[in-house]
Amino acid sequence: MRELIMVRYGEIYLKGRNRPYFLRLLVRRVTEAARPFGAKVWLHDSRIMVSDMLDINACMDRIRRVFGVHSVCPAVEMPKDDFEAVKRQAAAMMQGKTGTFKVVARRADKQYPLNSPAINAQIGGYVLEHVPGLSVDVKNPEHELSVEIRDWAYLYATVLPGVGGMPVGSNGKAALLLSGGIDSPVAGYLIAKRGVELVAVHFYSFPYTGERAKQKVLTLASILADYCCGMRVYVVPFTEIQMAIHEKCPDDHTTLIMRRFMMRIADIIAEKEGAQALVTGESIGQVASQTMQALVCTDQVVSRLVFRPLIGFDKIEITRWAEQIGTYETSCLPYEDCCTVFTPKHPVTQPKPDRVLKAEVALIDAEDMIARAVAGCEIVNL
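^ that's the sequence the OP posted. Answer follows.
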């Protein structure tokens, strides 16, 4: 008999002939998550098994954050042939519990002499006899004891939810424009949950934004990296471009033009990284640069798809997501990022593309500034 973690997946079941590809990728991601705990990971009979971990609770917490994992269960593996031992183990796992319970048997081994109803009845009767304070309720039990009969017998009484989604890397790669605010980390999380590998791009305007502001963003990226099994962050020196925009462009257009430069640089980095899309945290109408007309203007400068998973969310909904994934407190740290530097008093909300292009004419060395910014990137691997 040994303790292990049984990892279950959800949406992957629907993938038909492509299921083996998604399973191999999910096993790889679970293996990466479990590696710091010295664990062994393998796929066995539609379950991912994890054993020999140094700290089972810490290992489960880490695996639960792997996209594609539906749930994890601390389980016991034991020989299925000694059914009396299985019944004793079931009772031991229910000791100390009170209230109602039921047994849920799954007999993957159809040659096993007891069918699922018989397993339920025999184990349920044994537990009822040997664990005081429990009664049976098959419809709405407070506790559920699961018994799976496969090559071995697997017993578990606790099911912890995972984050769900698809394994990272199964649906391409995208560059996330990551600020220090609440929105962009949530946007990155939601896209990564659909199996998209992320590389982050952060714009850093030293000395107007300091080292603590950069560290704040790297902390946000590290939280996302826990879900994504790692992430590369490009820290882009943006001061030269931002100062040129502030000095040479119409004040009401500076934020929009700044966003266009950010998108152009992110597009170049995405090309370098082999990413097929960009990801932003924009929510339509939230600020002046996020009106429909403004979004049209920013999209005109890039060559690839732009994902905006928060486009229809309000701030309360986004904040709830940030709290749920663990980025909210870090996002609220009072360190400004470049988006808050030189903010105009009356930014344009309904920009005209021809006027934006006319305003950018003053930036005669735009291509050289972009090239210098890309060349000067600091790359951090998390």
